[in-house]
Phage abortive infection protein
Amino acid sequence: MNRLFTSFLCAIVITVWLLWAHYSPDIAAYFLWLSDSTVSTAGTWGDSFGPLNALISSFAFIGVCITLFTQSDAIKIQTADTHRQRFESSFFEIIRIMKEVRDNISFTNSRDYSDHIRKESGLPPLKKLPRYSNIKAIRQCVKEIQFWLVRNKIAFKPDEDQMKNIYMRSVHSRFESTLSPYFRLIYTTLKKINDDKILNDGEKIYYANLLRSQLTSFEIILIGINALCPISNDFKKYVSHFRLLKYVPKGRWRQRLRLFYDDEVFAGRDD
């Protein structure tokens, strides 16, 4: 629309100039009732039309301003589009890296947990405890926490300090080196999405939902627990804002996490 208006304005200016150059004697004769429609006769009358140049110059100046504003808007739009393309590319690269980091997670359950599970199954204790990796390791982390909640008789309604202490003691302190990079990557990704100045709210939710779709229910549960701890900085804020716990399965773990998060964190969005 701005480009069309600028072109129209330029056409008017050029037309006025051409008409004035060609018909100025006739215009002078018409308005001054001259019999000799010549440039010399109309010279004095023409001098009085100096303001016409100022008017045309004003038109030209307005046209230049509109062009500059139009170009500025176009540059902003182009810059935003380029940013979105780069963000999308980097986001999917982060997803790829996240999967690699997840594959490198390892975890070994405690002797207490292993002996209890073996005893419940009527089996003798293992001499060497198995080490799990990737998603299996995350699943065993959750099972380890579950075991200690039951053993401490707080499985139904643990308070936040109890949950954090069990997590830190039974999981984090034992395998921090393989788990922390994973949580930091998810935290950084959510923060990057949240803090972006170009993406609108709908786009931020879209990318956060894409990230959430890559996570298993055990991952989401462990993220929800990890985000409660002081070591996680403001991870809980992003978990809550982007409703990362939406797909925690109905059951005991969903009930536990509801003790520490608002109901909306488990709900879907209309947008």
Observations:
- Residues 23 and 193 are 64 Å apart (CA to CA).
- The first helix runs from residue 2 to 32.
- The chain is about 70% helix and 0% strand.
- The chain has a mean pLDDT of 86.
